[in-house]
Amino acid sequence: MRTLPNVWAVPNVWISARHSEHAVGFPYIRHAIASTKESPSGSLNDLRGKAIPYDGHVTGTAEHRQEHPAPRVIAHRGASGYRPEHSRAAYELAIEQGADAIEPDVVVSADGELVLRHENALTDTTDVAEHPEFADRRTTKTVDGIEHTGWFAEDFTWLELRTLRLRERIPPLRPANTEYTDERMLRLEDLLALLEGTGVTLVAELKHPTYFASIGHDLGALFAERMRASGWADRPDRVVVECFEESVLHEVRARGVQGRLVYLMMAGQSAPDLVERDGAAALTYRDQLLPGQLVRLRERGIDGISLSKGFLLEDGADALIERMHGLGFDTFTFTLRPENAFLDERFRSAEDTSGDAGVTIDLAEHGIGTGRASMRWLAEHGRWQDEWRAIMSTGVRWVFVDHPDLPHRITRD
Predict the structure, then answer these.
(1) Is the domain covering 2-39+57-412 a CATH 3.20.20.190 domain?
(2) Which of the 8 DSSP states describes residue 44?
(3) 384: which residues sit within 8 A by CB, 6+ positions away?
(4) How far is CA 77 from the centre of its chain?
(5) What percent helix, strand, coil does the chain show, rounded to 5?
(6) What are phi and psi of 57, to 5 degrees?
(7) Which residues pair with 399 in a beta bridge?
(8) How far apart are CA 221 and CA 356, in angstroms?
(9) How far apart are CA 74 and CA 399, in angstroms?
């Protein structure tokens, strides 16, 4: 069991290192002092099918780099760069900005409702700590081998969860999102109703199925039942189901949900269901990208692979994507964000060191660079266009983004 350290202790600031690559090269920020700029919205309709050239020598040589159609855009937790994640406002804005798909994360309440939250922990993204009636439910749990302290969705009924208000996860980086203070939690069926008639694809991520099974909730069965009840189980062209655990994907298909099954992979980690079964001998996600393992995944019926973006900034990424396409996989990557905090170090903008820097942190201490940097700079948009071009030029077909309006700028520029 690993206990999360509370790191980056500065006045009014603390940052915890969890799934740093999932956070795209930088740990999630809970409370800090910074600012960021909101970018204008726009339609993605003129992006689809256009070529994305890139010759930046990041993931391959210019001599072998090909031009590829622009990938389709998945609004990650809705338009979460502009609205609190998984809120109705975030989903509605994603549709308005022309996202091809919307990604909800699915967890379970005490009474078996499928709730849309990025994780089962509620502390960082709701006002639960401000509710004295729920103070006694604060607890410590181990989920997928990581210890967390706070409040958890599975300890609340749906009616109780509806009394909470959603909050922005990273207010120092996205202060405009803090203006949306009256958003409430949604269930899977609420989003499905919102997507009716839009043509937008559902990309549903099932969270922590092994953990939920250990406390008596069959996430795969619950998801399949809700999809059938909502009339979405037989829409293979509109449904993608993804998870960091392969086993639940097969369960969902066996229970009648027609759609593409996508296996999520994070560098430096192993799938929780494999760890549960094989312990220390469990294959890592990187092991599962070896040619023989990819063939076995395809033979077992996995339709797509979704890679944390660091994989696509490595040498040989073009060949990896080409190999997966050759095997019949669809390809995805997560998550593209424009702020310096989330960019690969090679694509961050230069910091203006004149004047008062405000709160600063030691980048080397936290493994994200050298020297010190201000929280203000971390919130600024860096050279995100160059990073995104490098990733898109591998030929990956779907990209997760927090700002669904931004990708069209790459072809427009």
Answers:
(1) yes
(2) S
(3) 336, 337, 338, 339, 343, 347, 406
(4) 7
(5) 30, 20, 45
(6) 60, 30
(7) 73, 333
(8) 55
(9) 6
Token pair belonging to 130? 């401000």
**In Å, how far are 361, 364, 368 from 371, measured between CA atoms?**
8, 6, 10
CA distance 143 to 206: 14
Per the CB < 8 A criterion, the answer to whether 27 and 370 are in contact is no
355 contact partners, CB below 8 Å, separation of at least 6: none
Contacts of 378 (CB under 8 A, 6+ apart): 26, 34, 173, 339, 340, 341
**Six token digits for residue 380:** 């600024």
Nearest to 99 by CA among 196, 200, 236: 200
Length of the chain as a residue count: 413
Domain boundaries, the chain: 2-39+57-412
Q: How far is CA 297 from the centre of its chain?
A: 22
Helix (H) or strand (E) holding 329: none
pLDDT 10s digit of each residue in the chain, 413 long?
Answer: 333 322 222 223 323 323 333 333 333 443 332 222 222 222 223 333 344 444 555 555 444 456 789 999 999 999 999 999 999 999 999 999 999 999 999 999 999 999 999 999 999 999 999 999 999 999 999 999 999 999 999 999 999 999 999 999 999 899 999 999 999 999 999 999 999 999 999 999 999 999 999 999 999 999 999 999 999 999 999 999 999 999 999 999 999 999 999 999 999 999 999 999 999 999 999 999 999 999 999 999 999 999 999 999 999 999 999 999 999 999 999 999 999 999 999 999 998 777 777 778 777 775 666 778 888 899 999 999 999 999 999 999 999 999 999 998 886 66
Q: What are phi and psi for residue 195, nearest 5 degrees?
A: -80, -15
- Phi and psi at residue 344, to the nearest 5°: -55, 145
- Matching residue, tokens 């915890």: 16
CA 39 to each of CA 81, 84, 164, 339: distance values in angstroms, whole numbers, following the listed order: 9, 16, 29, 11
The residues pairing with 105 across neighbouring beta strands, listed in sequence order, are 205
3-state secondary structure of 202: strand
* Residue 51, H or E segment: none
Q: How far apart are CA 348 and CA 385, in angstroms?
A: 11
* Inter-residue contact 239 to 257 (CB < 8 Å): yes
Please say whether the beta carbons of 178 and 168 come within 8 A. Answer: yes
